[in-house]
């Protein structure tokens, strides 16, 4: 059943990511003009993430921060983060920065649903048991993302955002995602997609 389920999931990913990219092309063009007009730098932010079985890939996101911002810290702390551009505040609030990940889904780096891909710096901190989240393709959304949809706000209230992320948020998200890895089904994925859309809108 697992090979069939994986084939069904991959077919779903290819079909709906291609439809989504075609339908959202006008939105992508407007976003590109907006981002370029607002600040210097590329339209897309291409950060290295860890994918299935530990394979590294570059994620596509609309750039919402000033050029070189990730050199200071890979943790963002909401609207009061001075590195975020004016357009970036809206882009991040409504999760518009995530839309280009449809490209990653189409080419096979990611799926619509799966554990959010993490940067190598934090994956290096995983225990052997926690590394099982890498047994499946990472996704645009998951149950942990729904629970922590206001993650940036939580980090903004913490005295030490990175420490709070590593010792509080990350372990909980990994626990949720490990449960998904063990028990996921196609219908679970559909449910998670609708829950995500409900949270955003």
Please report the total strand number as a whole number. Answer: 4
Strand order of the largest sheet: 1-2
The gyration radius over C-alpha positions equals 17 Å
- Average pLDDT score: 92
> Percent range for helical residues?
40-55%
Distance between the termini: 34 Å
The chain-level structural class is: mainly alpha
Low-confidence stretches: none
Q: Count of DSSP helices?
A: 9
Structural description of this entry:
This protein is mainly alpha-helical. Helices cover 52% and strands 10% of the residues. It has nine helices and four strands; from the N terminus they run ααββααβαβαααα. It has helices at residues 2-23, 25-38, 86-93, 101-107, 120-123, 143-147, 151-157, 161-183, 186-200; strands at residues 44-50, 56-62, 111-113, 139-141. The protein has a two-stranded antiparallel sheet with strand order 1-2. A two-stranded parallel sheet has the order 3-4. Helix 7 (151-157) runs antiparallel to helix 8. The longest helix is centred in the C-terminal third of the chain and has 23 residues, at 161-183. The N and C termini lie far apart (34 Å). The mean pLDDT is 92.
């Amino acid at each position: 059943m697992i090979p069939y389920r994986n084939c069904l999931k991959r077919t779903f990913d290819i079909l709906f990511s291609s439809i989504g990219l075609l339908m959202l092309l006008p939105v992508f063009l407007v976003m590109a003009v907006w981002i370029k007009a607002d600040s210097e730098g590329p339209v897309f932010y291409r950060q290295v993430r860890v994918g299935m079985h530990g394979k590294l890939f570059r994620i596509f996101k609309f750039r919402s921060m000033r050029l070189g911002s990730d050199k200071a810290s890979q943790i963002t702390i909401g609207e009061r983060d001075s590195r975020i551009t004016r357009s970036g505040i809206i882009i991040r609030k409504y999760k518009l920065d995530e839309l280009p990940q449809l490209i990653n889904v189409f080419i096979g780096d990611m799926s619509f649903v799966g554990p959010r891909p993490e940067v190598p710096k934090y994956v290096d901190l995983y225990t052997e048991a926690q590394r099982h989240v890498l047994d499946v393709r990472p996704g645009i959304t998951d149950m942990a993302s729904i629970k922590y949809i206001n993650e940036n706000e939580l980090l903004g209230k913490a005295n030490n955002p990175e420490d709070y992320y590593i010792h509080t948020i990350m372990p909980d998200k990994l626990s949720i995602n490990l449960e998904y890895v063990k028990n996921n089904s196609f219908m679970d994925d559909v449910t998670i997609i609708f829950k995500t859309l409900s949270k955003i809108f």
